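Entry 14. Two folds queued back to back today. First construct below, sequence then structure tokens.
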Amino acid sequence: MPNPGYRKRTILLLVALLLVRFWFAQTFELSGQEAYLWLQGHGTNLSPAYWEQGPFVPWLIRVGTAFFGDTELGVRWLAAVICCASGFVLFYLARHWFNARSAFWTVVLFIIIPMYAWKLSFMTEATASVGLMALTLFAFCRAVEEDRVWWWLLGGTASGLALLVALPNAWWLAGLLLYFAVTPDRRPRLMEALLWSMILFTGLFLLPIIWWWRGEQVADVAHTHMLNAWPLTHNFSLNQGFHFIWTEIFYLSVPFFILLVVLFWRLGRQLWEDPRYGLLVCLALPGLVWQNFTAFFHEGRFELIPALFLPLVLLVGCYTARLSRIDRVARWAFAGVFVFAALQSLVALNPFYLVHRTDGPGLQVLRTRSGENMTGRFYADKRQISWRNLADHVVQIQRDVGATLIITDSTSMASALSFYLPRNPFVYVLGKPEVITQFDFWPGYDQSASPNDSALFISHTNDDQPPADLVKNFASVKILDDPPFPDFDKSWSIWNCQQFIGQGQDAGATQAKPMPDSEALPK
């Protein structure tokens, strides 16, 4: 047997990685995006569809919390499983196409590239898309080779579930059609019934989303905000587009990106002539082009980028590992990429991170995490108060002033507070006419509050005046001058809203029923 022992090494590596990720998932708090997805799957909020994305990730989180409760591990343990399962799929596909040695080093590359080391530490759309892309790669490869019904069925199922993660994942199917179109020998297969039957089968996964969108719960919000949801309706921005592209390169690590460009130049026409390389490039190309193009209109979704790059990681890993056996330069280049990518991944995964002080010059060590905001921008989270500590202090202030409701100005903060507050009470968000979130489909505070109820409004802005909605809905709205937070960041504002009078009604109000535990406030 050639290259003996690589399968055992891969199994040991991925099992060890699974155990490490299970431990690591408990060492830091949820990101705001994870908390938002958790809230979508919490209680009666679980739905067959949502406004911004499909329901697949909230379903996974609901399954995860059924085993380990509403904890960081409960939300993330399936991300660890998806990461390691994807490694096994990549290994067997690369071994099928090349050899066990190339497959092993491809899996190692997949593990250490920052984009996957970081993104697969969180339970988001990126994690689910990566796992489904790995399965889709394997199924389409075997379907193209053997043309068996069960391989097309597996590919259609994986692609259909990807649509339930995010609708732009339909570009995977466009990539498959592109592959048949640009390969003369395979072009006649565009007329085959199995291919189009698979695409039709994939479309059946959209039925729950179509059913939900036709419901009464969508009508009011859709009529009010539909124009803002069409693609390419935002302003063109060179800065936003190039920032998106640079973020991709940074997440991939610069040496890996350079190696990818050099490899494309070296292969040349072979990229299209070799059916293995052609399939990998075609599956990635349409989605990457679309996401980078829409980024110039503030609409690129970075959460979908890791899955789109996965075929290219497989291509680089297999080809370079094979080339490094006979080419010394390739061996050193491959080693350099490994070392640089591993160091970059480890630095950001380190729980102690040096950041600039917020109160003057110098550096300080904060327990923090690198993460991703809702628009996909990379940032170093420099909050001086963790979500858990913020929730503890909010509870204390709530008791001191007698507030019964909690309102915030962002979905991330509201979701995180809902997660970390005792008994998971629902935290409300002020509506914004130019932004649609899932909160627009749930009851607002003005629908749930009783006369004379009071509330805390928590904002992370420097506005000196309270929002107009609060002023018209409460008899008294006063800012707390000195909230009792340690190392308080002055950009946070806490407003004490007394005596709900309910004179306003949000334009995005809906008929959704409140979750059963929405009135469970800490005593």
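Second construct, same run, same settings:
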Amino acid sequence: MMELLFVASIAFISGMLLTRLIRSISLRTGFVDHPDGRRKLHLKPIALGGGLAVSISAFLSLACAILIFPRIHGLVDEAVISEGRQSPISFFLGLFASSIFIIGIGLLDDRFQLRGRQKLLGQIVAVSILLASGLVVESIQIFGWRHQLGLLAYPFTMFWLLGAINALNLIDGLDGLATSVGIILSLAIGVMALMNSHMTDAMITFALCGALLGFLIYNFPPASIYLGDAGSMFIGLLLGALAMRSSFKASATVALMAPTVIWAIPILDVGMAILRRKLTGRSIYETDRGHLHHCLMRNGFSGQMTLIWIAVFCTVTALGALISVALRDERMGVVSFIAVFGTLIVTRLFGFAECKLLGGRLKSIFSSFIHMPNRDSPRTSSPVHARLTGTRDWDELWETLTEYAERFDLSSVQLNVNLPALNEEYHVNWNRRGRGPEQEQWTTDIPLIAGRTTVGRLRISGRSAEGSVCSWMGELIAGLKPFEVQISAMLGDLMQLNLAQDQHISDSESLLAETSSG
């Protein structure tokens, strides 16, 4: 235990000192996160590079511990060695190399805003380095049932690690949130490692915990420095890998329930984000304001209270997982997750709109199996509405669209409005089945623009018309004019917001110039 306290203390002290140093360097060099008035709503440029401070502090503390405590070289579970698991040296080298790589990808993204697919490719390379070091889950155990993964071993391990990386990356949308979640997860995984006699894994998690605590002093609301993608992806990679290693029961066999429940809140958040975006016809890389922290803040919670409540949710699931390990009863972990998720759904704080969308989609799929298609008598489904955020009345606008759909005999209409700056996100879709062969169907996406801002998309589909296609398409586009006028009038205040945004960005740049020169 002395080694663990030493590692955490050194990481905490170095985390504080390095964070302050890197914050100063970032402000002077212009490596900052600028507000954009749409998704990034902070009031002034905030320093980036916190991930460097956290990672350097964690690895520095581990290096100091190895030099001061020589016996750390032998802190390996002999039972695990006898079962043929990878040596810790191989794992450490792989973990260090993959961490360096993913931090580099994160810094590039923080500086140049990489595309989603480019960032994903970098994550895959980083995970592949770790897999090459021998960290592969060959079998899983859940509720006493053990299953050999076989050919799925590598895909499963990669899927888990990529999920962990992106779960921490996506939850990093509020001052101190990813840091606080990382602290709770690292503590829980560290305790689980000790319970399973994995001392080396526990040391790494305690080092990360100490570094994050030192960083949190400057990242707590209101933050003066951000983790950036370099930090959130590094934490996700590290904790994702250690969650698997710490739950090894035999050679490359993971007791899956405990690490899954420890990660439950980040997994829930990213799962709902993917579900929400897919069901509303958007790319999974598209940003929105439907994450857990956004939902809590819309319900009146302050930034600090939102941070505290999410920390409480993570603590509940983490404790449930640890109790399940101690009692060897995985049902305790499941109960803790159901309690948290059920509370969020019942109170409609988070997940209710996504569940409603999913229910509508499942109902639509189920009904398609029951009713036979009829070309002459198409069946119209009821529109599925989902107001994720906001208070504006979209019914009149939707009525205009349905009249338009009837006039041009459309097969489906889908409206997606996403305005984070005005706290508005609304989705609705409507369709008619039995519209004839698929080869006769067409689909088009139309961006909705108010001022200089894209506020959403309209997707419509229908059957090819008889006669001149060009003439008919001209009438179709002209028919959208009333809708365009109506949405422009409804969102007229966005024009004023654009002007205020320009002035705000100008003021921010002036402030940054003054800070850099000072």
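Quick look at the second one. The first helix runs from residue 2 to 29. Residues 76-84 have pLDDT under 50 and may be disordered.
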